[in-house]
Design a protein that fits this description.
With 208 residues, the chain is of the alpha/beta class. It has six helices and 15 strands.
Length: 208
């Protein structure tokens, strides 16, 4: 699939196996989500623009480089919150903007309930964070909101994706790269990813 980037990093696939296990407790689950998010961010930001910057080392002056793009993190509430700290490990100056969506369990469609974006964009790149790209409805709706906000460069970072959600995202927003730890088999009749890892929000926050 175009613009789909499942990770092949050994650390990612190792940590994902631990994350999937039914025996992994919420504290460890949160730790693994954070660590996987950090590793996926490394892959997703390989093309960030840079500019030269003079720097003085203890021995000499030289010309180095620095990032030339302001990055915004957009975790889809609530499961996406667990990924923020991991991304901040690499991008400590990134802004965080929250968009709240929940999935109507009857229609499986996203319902927006929270959005505090300012009138004008304050970032040039947005990373949409959500552990599970299941039906794809929430991801598509979030990118719709960000495009209306005026952001041109958007990437999706998740942990597990289902073919159905990936297809919907690529149909609606073909230019948005999708970075995942893994692509799973399919959705079940309730819209959950198989084999998956259960409900990422419940497992992070101990509410299952």
């Amino acid at each position: 699939m175009p613009n789909l980037f499942p990770s092949s990093l050994p650390l990612v696939v190792h940590k994902l196996t631990l994350l999937r296990s039914i025996t992994t407790e919420p504290r460890k689950f949160r730790e693994l989500v954070r660590e996987i998010a950090t590793l996926l961010t490394y892959e997703a930001t390989l093309d960030l623009a840079t500019q030269t910057k003079p720097v003085t080392t203890p021995l000499a002056k030289m010309v180095g480089v620095e990032l030339n793009e302001q990055v915004g993190l957009v975790p889809i509430l609530r499961a996406g919150l667990g990924m923020v700290e991991g991304v901040w490990e690499l991008l400590p100056t990134a802004e965080v903007w929250h968009i709240g969506l929940f999935r109507d369990e009857r229609t499986l469609k996203p319902v927006e309930y929270y959005n505090k974006l300012p009138v004008e964009p304050t970032v040039s790149v947005c990373l949409v964070l959500d552990p599970m790209l299941a039906t794809g409805g929430s991801a598509v709706a979030t990118v719709d909101i960000l495009k209306r906000w005026g952001v041109k460069k958007i990437k999706f970072i998740g942990i597990i994706g289902a073919p159905e959600g990936i297809a919907l995202m690529q149909q609606a927003h073909p230019a948005v790269p999708i970075h995942l730890a893994a692509v799973d088999e399919r959705l079940n009749e309730h819209g959950y990813i198989l084999p998956g890892l259960g409900d990422a929000g419940d497992r992070q926050f101990g509410t299952g």
